[in-house]
Recover the amino acids of this structure.
């Protein structure tokens, strides 16, 4: 039997637990602000982990590299997701192992429908 979990729902639980843990440590007044700072600092990882859909856009062109460079191939990937109750569409930079390495763009959306339209327009 395989259990499937919507990663966006799991991300909401992580944020709720983060806020709850910060409330215990720093009080309710500071918890939400500290959680927002964590989200800002680790935005590319949270956006990637909370995605509900993704689409490969192409290889990230990094300029010229010599043959001696230990170049890491990076891809541009369009994602849509919901984080902390807000829908977004974004372009993530992802390595060959499927780990987020950066964020090129992120658009916050008022609804899932708006996020899907923005996601469809990403190139």
């Amino acid at each position: 039997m395989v259990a499937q979990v919507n990663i966006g729902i799991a991300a909401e639980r992580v944020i709720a637990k983060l806020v709850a843990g910060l409330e215990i440590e720093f009080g309710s007044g500071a918890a939400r602000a500290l959680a927002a700072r964590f989200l800002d600092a680790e935005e590319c990882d949270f956006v990637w982990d909370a995605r509900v859909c993704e689409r490969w856009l192409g290889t990230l062109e990094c300029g010229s590299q010599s043959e001696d460079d230990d170049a890491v191939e990076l891809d541009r990937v369009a994602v849509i997701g919901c984080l902390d109750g807000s829908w977004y569409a974004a372009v993530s930079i992802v390595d060959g192992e499927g780990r987020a390495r950066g964020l090129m763009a992120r658009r916050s959306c008022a609804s899932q429908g708006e996020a899907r339209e923005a996601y469809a327009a990403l190139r």
Observations:
- The first strand starts at residue 51 and ends at 59.
